[in-house]
Automatic annotation (TrEMBL):
Keywords: Membrane, Transmembrane, Transmembrane helix. It comes from the Bacteria. This is ABC transporter permease. Pfam families: MlaE. The chain crosses the membrane at residues 151-176, 201-224, 236-259. It comes from Actinomadura parmotrematis. The lineage of its organism: Bacteria, Bacillati, Actinomycetota, Actinomycetes, Streptosporangiales. PANTHER family: ABC TRANSPORTER PERMEASE PROTEIN-RELATED (PTHR30188), PROTEIN TRIGALACTOSYLDIACYLGLYCEROL 1, CHLOROPLASTIC (PTHR30188:SF4).
């Protein structure tokens, strides 16, 4: 019993050290992937292919998620606003929530959960087949050739998906708030932008862009460093999705806190 208690601090230190090592290697992978961004001719074709793949696999799921989210926000906010006698403000609250918080998070999680899983499995399959080592033997840096286009594809598609999330969420909220709860369409759309500023949209696109980088970097890193065998690839996919979600929520909180301090919200 005493020996097991003495081993507990050592085990905790090893886990913390492993987590810090993996964080450092992840940052190195991200920075190394961005270092050769200027050499567009080397990765342009792969970038277009990855953008098309990510857009194809995420566009429909992101709409299927955004519509219920907008409907849920509209129902909850509409009930409260109607009790307060401010049912016409539901559109403003819905659009503000979709633009500032829901859109970048939904886009990033879809890019990570759908596209990132495919990226991790692809990189893991290349790893267990020793394709990455073969590229290094031929003098080709696998990070520059494979990771760089995926980083930019993930960030580009994540930023573009924000508009899809906002549109689908507003349509879902419009249906339940106007058709189901009886708010007039003019009142719903008239105040929809009263709580927003142009900088809110810019920050939303910036957050989605950063989240796309994070999702693609984590997916590539987990795939390139997975254990050999199908089990190792499966664990890497699961770990990539979980780690991306944690990092995205932490970064979102940090960016939103700084933005609210620097740019006061409109009332």
């Amino acid at each position: 019993m005493v020996l097991s208690l003495n081993k507990a601090p050592d085990l905790a230190r090893r886990r913390v050290g492993t987590a810090l090592d993996e964080t450092g290697l992840l940052c190195v992978t991200l920075l190394e992937g961005l270092r050769r961004t200027w050499d567009v001719r080397q990765w342009w074709g792969e970038f277009i292919e990855q953008c098309w793949f990510l857009a194809r696999v995420t566009s429909v799921p992101v709409m299927l998620i955004a519509v219920p989210l907008g409907a849920t926000i509209s129902l909850q906010v509409g009930d409260i606003a109607r009790q307060l006698g401010a049912a016409s403000g539901t559109g403003a609250l819905l659009v503000s929530a979709m633009v500032q918080q829901v859109a970048p998070l939904a886009a990033a999680l879809l890019v990570s959960g759908v596209g990132g899983s495919a990226i991790t499995s692809d990189m893991g399959a290349r790893n267990i087949r020793d394709e990455l080592s073969a590229m290094e033997v031929m003098g080709i840096n696998p990070i520059h050739r494979l990771v760089t286009p995926r980083l930019w594809a993930g960030s580009t598609v994540s930023a573009l998906l924000c508009s899809v999330v906002i549109l689908a969420g507003v349509l879902g909220g419009y249906y339940f708030n106007v058709i189901q709860q009886g708010v007039s369409p003019g009142a719903f759309f008239d105040g929809s932008t009263t709580l927003l500023q142009f900088s809110d949209l810019l920050v939303t696109l910036f957050k989605a862009w950063v989240f796309g980088f994070i999702a693609a970097a984590v997916a590539c890193y987990m795939g390139m460093n997975c254990d050999y065998g199908p089990v190792g690839v499966g664990r890497a996919v699961n770990k990539a999705v979980v780690v991306t979600s944690i990092i995205v929520f932490a970064v979102n909180y940090t960016i939103q806190m700084l933005y609210q301090v620097l740019v006061p919200p409109r009332f």
